[in-house]
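PT: before anyone asks, these are the final sequences, not the draft ones from last week. 246 residues across everything. Please model them as a single complex and drop the result in this thread when it's through.
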Amino acid sequence: MSEDNAPEIVLALEIDDPALAGRLEALLAGVAGLRLAVSGETAAATIVARDPRVMPDDIALTQRELDVLALMAEGASNKMIARQLGISVHTVKFHVGSLLDKLDATGRTDAVAHAARRGVIEL
Amino acid sequence: MSEDNAPEIVLALEIDDPALAGRLEALLAGVAGLRLAVSGETAAATIVARDPRVMPDDIALTQRELDVLALMAEGASNKMIARQLGISVHTVKFHVGSLLDKLDATGRTDAVAHAARRGVIEL
DNA sequence: CCTTGTCCTGACCACCCGGCCAGTTTCGCA
DNA sequence: TGCGAAACTGGCCGGGTGGTCAGGACAAGG
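LR: through. Structure below.
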């Protein structure tokens, strides 16, 4: 049915591992209906595979710490976080402190950046 | 030894557009050597296609604001930024203020998050 | 029973942050 | 040559932030 609305799906590759990239390239080359993007071309979708080395140990964050972290990433102040989670500002500061420690960050901005970098949270 | 004619490449799909997702699913289903991940499975690579998000006007940030923003993303304090750029803390606060205004952020953490989201900076 | 760990709360304090005021120099442009 | 925009600096101040102390509730496991 209507192949008119489905020309070709253009895919881009962003893969750290050269071996995996090569295999995928070879496999996808033989598929009708899609092709790989040439340099600079805008792709409909991108195949990504990050080097797993960036998150060696998935840092053990408690559920509460993840809650606080998520709200921190939204730019919420301790007071806002406290209200949102139904806990006291003191407790929020406690969790933020733990976060700074575990993420090896110097402040909340640094903590969010670190967490985003290693995929703990999605910006 | 290396039977690296590896079994299958497991791919995950993260595509906003259902139509595109469906087409890709159909296309890739017929390719030997790779398969789609089942829910929760760890994939070797992920195919992503974000909604052509609104990055209408790449916000006009001055060079100095970009300098400050980059250091903010590293978790640097105003004092550190001042020292790094060879300017006074007051000037840093001035630029941070402009950044918060232009990025529609409530604080430096929010500013970094917004900037990262719309690709102004790379985390 | 007692210890351990996690989560939660409180208070104190030095410092940082963001917003406000006002002022300078430098530059491009009409 | 005048004029505005950008960059820079200063002081001031209310509120937020991060570090440190101390302690309570509650479940898991010795």
